[in-house]
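Complex 788.
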Amino acid sequence: MKILNLIMAALLAVLPFTEAKGRLAVVDPILPLIPAPRAWQPAGQEIAVADLVRIVVAVDDQAASRQAELLVGWWHQATGRRIPVQIAGPGEPPAGTIVLRVTGQGPDTAPVVPGAHDETWEMDLTPDGIEIRAPEPAGLFGAMESLRQLALSAGANGTLPCGHVIGGPRFGWRGLLLDSGRHLQDVDFIEDLIDLLALYGFNVLHWHLTEDQGWRLEVPGHQALTDIGAWRNYGDGGRYGGFYTAADIRRVVSHAADRFITVVPEIELPGHAKAALAAYPELSCTGGPFEVETQWGIHEDVFCAGSDAVFALLEDVFDHVVELFPSRYVHIGGDEVPKDRWLACSRCQARITDENLDGVQDLQSWFVGRAARQLADRGRRLVGWDEIIAGGLAEGATVQSWRGTRGAVTAARAGHDAVVSPTSHAYFDYDVGELPLEKVLTFDPVPAELEPEHHHRILGGEMNLWTEYVPQTEIHRQLVPRITAMAEALAAPAGTKDFPGFLRRLHRHEGFWPVLGVMPGPASRPLQIRAEFGTDGGYRLLAHWRDDEDHAARFSGTGLRIQTGLASRPAQWRADVPPEKQPLPAPLEWTSAGFSANTRPPGDILAMARLESDSDTMVYGAPAVVELHESLALGRPVTLVHEPRERYAGYDSFPLTDGVRGGLRFNDGHWSGFEAVDLDATIDLGSQSVDAEISIRCLQDANAWIFLPTEVRFLGSDDGESWQELGVEAHDVPDTEQRVIIRGFSVRTGRKTRFVRVVATNHGICPDWHPGRGKACWIFVDEVLVRK
Ligand SMILES: [Zn+2]
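Predicted structure with zinc ion bound:
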């Protein structure tokens, strides 16, 4: 076997380090608060955490008394010390006191809706103690969470900088959407999540409780909603589901209220209702029967708009909802409603006639309007996704803008309130490669094109955590650390956020997350490893930025650098350590020109590049990791009958022969994607090879319309013109398979051959059960390997 020289290099020089070890000033000038306060005037002195020995509240300050009990617990967690709560005596408090004071008359409740509430606060830190003042209890709570952050980052034996802090969030609506429809979360877990939200100044838990894939709210008198609608039945006998009882909900709502968080329930209508229809098929247009949906996506069967029984059910559901949830907002969804069934339904068409409506778009607006009146009758207001704008907004409706920010602009100009959570900046179910921390930090809920006179209509924003691919165990990794950037976007003062400064504060938080049981994922996936081939048959690997933006400028001054390595297989990774924290095998020396190695381990190798911090243990970026496979086809040109789509054409010049296989994510840059056509690839190996194994791997990800080929044909030739069939391989993976699957196909040539041809037959059109039924499928192939 020819041993290739392997040269690893990078496009960028080493980033400068800004934080030399042991060079900190006597008093840390950084106030490690996230979100940043409105103002911070350091006084140049400090107070030891250990010197703070009591909390004092005024005798008649009941709001402060209640909150002081929370602070006692937090202080113990941060420092290991229990400090008492005392009633203020006459005169100045003694040294070592934390004074909590509510100076005004605000209600002791969560302040959503905003406007009537003042969440500002002030904090004085002096060598003698700390005093916190706020006009309303919600402001005091925000200040206490800030003090908690200071104590956690200082630790039991640390010090706090002295000075004057003024805080208070920019927006009144600072939320997380939690999807409990696709995956459920335990009540204990949700309570902990609420604590994390509170720590970062969030005040809304938008709880998505009903979906095609599960109805999670027990409703008295409608037991089938949860007996049937809460459970998904899989073809292989598997079952998934569960629901929340009234007692569960009360626990969550009460826990949240104690932390000034409002739980806004979402009951999806008229779409995303398949679970309810499985329980009550008569509420659909066709009458069913239905199963609780096991496929993610958009489904045609929705509530029948012509059925009065639908609204009778909603009456009961809303009665129960308003009893459980004190929130003055109820979210009704309203998104992604296919109109196919309504178009074909005589009852829906009769409704259009009776109500003098202009078609099915109008019918959706009418449906939402009727739900809005049901809520108004109960003293509640409606929030819906931006689809509720089509056909006219219901009176008083608030719009949640997710398809960009246009919905928010339209709503605000029409005199409606808006909550902003665009896919571009707020969808935390997206991989950090698509939505990295620094991009979240640039989020401004006020759309740039919105006129100043309408800005007050923007209530705030939310980060949306859809859970199709995020079971409970993955929620921390998706949320953290991006939750901190969203906190900054929603609650710090307006204006450009300073990324290096933000990272310095964030590093301090990373240090205390283990104390809170928070398990962060990576912040970004900025690097990609790419193979490049020389005319001599050798190749080198480039660690390069994932996109074309000027990362060098963006990362300068952050204390981050690229670290790379490569290893022989099997990789000596520790099974209990996530990839981004694995020790790097055989790290290579960097020079200003990049780095290089003259030797390459024999056989297949593993290469990794990642961004990491020089100043502490923080691993900023998820690593780029590739396995490089030996192959006679390595770097050989490929002739294709049909080109892959540009978006899925791989990152290399020869993605099918770069030795790099793809992972389970179809968009990881190593897959070539062909839409509606076969893969038909010919590779000239350059010289005749004796008996070898030819193999390819294909992906099935039905949710992404990617199906395995029906069969793969392998052909060989000496001249590239006359072909001999070497073998055909089919498979028995059903097209109903919902998991993401990689399937290999291979053949042994059994003869000398110079040209290798692989034909993988496209599945054709999406099958009947599929949301894209009748439309073209994709084939995804990562690599053609030819091995002895
Ligand atoms: Zn109907």
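The longest helix spans residues 359-377.
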